[in-house]
Amino acid sequence: MLEYTPDRRLVGGLRLPPQKARSTGLAIKRGLRPTRLILPLAQHRSPPAQPLVAVGQRVLRGEVVAAAGSVLGANVHASTSGIVRAIGESLVPTLTGVESAPTIVIEADGKHESVDFSANLPWPGGRNAQLARLRDGGIVGLGGAGYSTAAKLGAVRPCRILVINGAECEPYISCDDMLMREAPEQILAGARIIAELLGAEQCIVAIERDKALAVDSIGQAVQPEGDPPLRLAELPQIYPAGGERQLIEVLTGEEVPAHRYPSDLGYACQNVGTAFAVYRLAAYGEPLMTRIVTVTGHGVVAPQNVEVPIGTPIAEIIAACGGYREGVRRLIHGGSMMGYALPSDALPVAKGTNCIIAATAEEVREDYTEWPCIRCGECASACPVRLQPQDLLIAARASEHAGLDALGLDECIECGCCDVACPSHIPLTEIFRRAKNAHSLHDELRREERRREADSGKES
Amino acid sequence: MEFPVAPSPHSPPTAPVPVIMRRVLYALAPAAIVYVWFFGTGFIVNLSVAALTAVLAEGAVIKLRGRSTRHSLRDGSALVTAALLTFAIPPFVPWWIPAIGAAAAIVIAKQLYGGLGKNFFNPAMVGYVLLLVSFPVEMTQWVPPRMGDIDYQRLTFVQNLNYSLTGRLPDELTMDAVTRATPLDLVREGARAGQPFAAVRGGSLFGDFGGRGWEWVGNFIALGGLYLLYMGVIRWHIPVAMLAGVLVPATLLYFIDPARFAAPGFHFFSGATLLGAFFIATDPVSAASSARGRLIFGGGIGLLTYAIRTWGGYPDGVAFAVLLMNAAVPLIDRYTRPRIYGRS
């Protein structure tokens, strides 16, 4: 396989204990049969999907139960067969946190009866038809963002570089690693399909160097011929090198300007899980019904990766991994840096759920004793965006909006590096998150004010 | 099952401020022992007075400011200030010297600005400079190192303590009998009198590079500094830049005129060069915060130290250099701020 040499090292970032070995000892557990599904209809940057089924109706595995809310959304499919029991609202995990959002609840009948997927074959020719098929197939980014893949790919034109993101830099998460070990051909086939759809000039699979088995497996699976040739880039192990903007910087040396997207520069980043899902759709007609979830932490009996039907309550996958150990203090959705705490394990696995950590006391921060900022600058050294968190902190506490703009609050990616590096244990990430909300509110009020002034000017 | 929630990140954070302060104290301990071995027990008396005063002053002001003394005193920063001040002052002084120095450092330089993290100037250096300009006689009561002067009779701990508390020397001794000029003083006077450096440094107060004894304290200060670097308490930029700031002009001028200018090795091991580079200039609160800024900050301290020693009115210049560069930090920080990702 052709190798691609990254352009530079990540500025800032942290070398964190990976905490991944615990969940990579066992092969991916397959064949989990949920008793109940809670299918989230909420979609990132698009209105929720619209239910197509009625309470009491029987649905089959792979049947569309809700249609994309807009062209930026994706369809939602039943991931097992059963009876629709409720259509309403409940708590679901989203990109940014737990929200009350529309859901369809299905009681599984245990038969696991599927629709005929061959109806979705063959994979069509032509960009628009393919994008429509991705939307119909319910494909969204499986790296965590959950943004419609059709919408994301549709925005890239022309595509210079397609990056298949297997960096998986955040501690604990190992679902991409395991998928790369077990299904490299299918991931690469998916990468080819996406590259062809985009007409990509280059395609790079990026993996952090510490995932030696995944690197070997992908390296051996690749067929060197093909247009564009697939290339493998090994990245140094540092968090958050797998963040989209950071990954592009590391690979190409180019920065995505503020308020613009990678697609504006001709870059497309797709998670390896998404590439796998695209392959399943194109080759077998299977819509997105399952995903790999890392179930880990000291608080779970048998940490491992599980292929989980979307909508399965988290309690059921924990049970499939042997249940909880004593002393679980926090249930985390996602990794330990950017993931969020779940109030309950009754919440379902959503399309963006890559990891569930049952964390014990030694794995999480519990002491929130704060010390004064000593301006040591460790936060600034750790910031991958090159912000000065110690100055942002002062501006945020003073609600000084002009200062926050100049210091680049909007550019903060909330990766949590400054927070973990801070010897004063100041919850910087949370402070910046709140400041961002207050800041956008402030901007809105200011715009409103200006509009009113302009209006009153007109009247007089 | 229900679980408590908390905001991200969930990963446990790095060692907290009190642990960092403790590490600084550990790093100073070997140098303190060597200091006592070479210069006598006055150091212990001064350290006790400075530490007690610093903690009491800190507690009193925090109380006046209506803050929690239990929390603030636990950070350990007052003890670090007291220890650094003790290294800076002569070992043989009345008790009120470390007391006034520590009180000024804590109350004026630190708490009046808002406490830990808010001060612009290095507290220990403010305390030291205040003592130096107010009590020039007491602040030059240095003693020779062990073996530096064969006629010298060292005071016992009790005699030392007695002098510190009452100002009385044993009957048979005069002040001149117990104090000596430092190597930096001798080099300075030698240069004024037109004596070549090589002749001055032939005296018994001199060791291989710097002053006898002083250079050993310096070695252990550097060892402590390496420990701080290893533990990640400090980063390399300030020490390296400050040492370069001293050594580069010292080497150049020494090669141009070795008779007039002291050798770079002498500058490296004398006075507060090493203490300044590893422990004083690296005080995070009053130093520049970016890597580039720290190089400028450290380099500036080194150059100013050399300039003050060579052409200024004081034998050593680390304290003044640090304070001057402290004043420049806001400007340095402003012009060395890195470009934010994605912004032009």
Work out the helicity level of chain A: 25-40%
Q: Which structural class should the secondary elements of chain A be placed in?
A: alpha/beta
Q: Report the average pLDDT across residues of chain B.
A: 92
Distance between the termini of chain A: 72 Å
The number of distinct helices of chain B, counting runs of at least 4 residues, comes to 16
Low-confidence stretches of chain B: none
Described by strand count, sense and barrel closure, the largest sheet of chain B is: none
- SSE-based structural type of chain B: mainly alpha
Rg for CA atoms of chain B? 21 Å
Number of strands of chain A: 17
Seen as an oligomer or otherwise, the chain set is heterodimer
Structure characterization notes:
Chain A contains 13 helices and 17 strands. With about 450 residues, chain A is α/β, with parallel strands linked by helices. In chain A, the strands form 4 sheets. Chain A has a 5-stranded parallel beta sheet with strand order 1-11-10-9-12, with helices on both faces. Chain A is globular and about 60 Å long. Chain B contains 16 helices and no strands. The longest helix of chain B is centred in the first third of the chain and has 23 residues. Chain B is globular. Chains A and B meet through strand 15, strand 16, helix 9, helix 12 and helix 13 of A and helix 1 of B.
